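Example record

One chain of 174 residues, shown exactly as stored in the release files.
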Amino acid sequence: MKTFVKALAAFGAALMVAAVPATAASAETTVGGNSGWVPFQTPSFTLPAGVACSFELHGEVVYDHEFTRVLETFPDGSPKVQEFQGALGVVFTNVETGGSARRDGSGTLRATRDGDGGTEFVFQGDGIAGILAGSPLPGVYVVSGHNVLVAHPDGSREFTVIHGTLENMCQTLA
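Predicted structure tokens for this chain:
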């Protein structure tokens, strides 16, 4: 489960993680040195049926030039505010039907943890976000624009701000 959570956070976000901007090369050259940016890689993933979609969904990372940095930490040293940026491309596949779609998740993502198990993910540009079953509108979303996803301590997630588009890959590939 931690791998799944990490993958989505990284997408963007994950993959509850996470996801990331089209200017990865400029990030490396412009904010290099002592900026704190380090390479980050989003792993490919497979979500069993019922986790986010009614079918098994596979996400194959086809390009990944991401960076991350920690802007603020908790007293124990764990990240409180973390940014992700870089180019990310994923081919999503409905494992049951073989249908697939390639999407770009390049943008920026800022994750702010509240210390009680909740996290606010702020997307700028494109990104990828997972919302698990049991949450309002579960799915794996490709976002574009300015969107805010809140992960609550109970594991539920919801978009609280939507200025742009949301594409639910569960609906696209159903």
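Notes: Confidence is low (pLDDT under 50) at residues 1-31.
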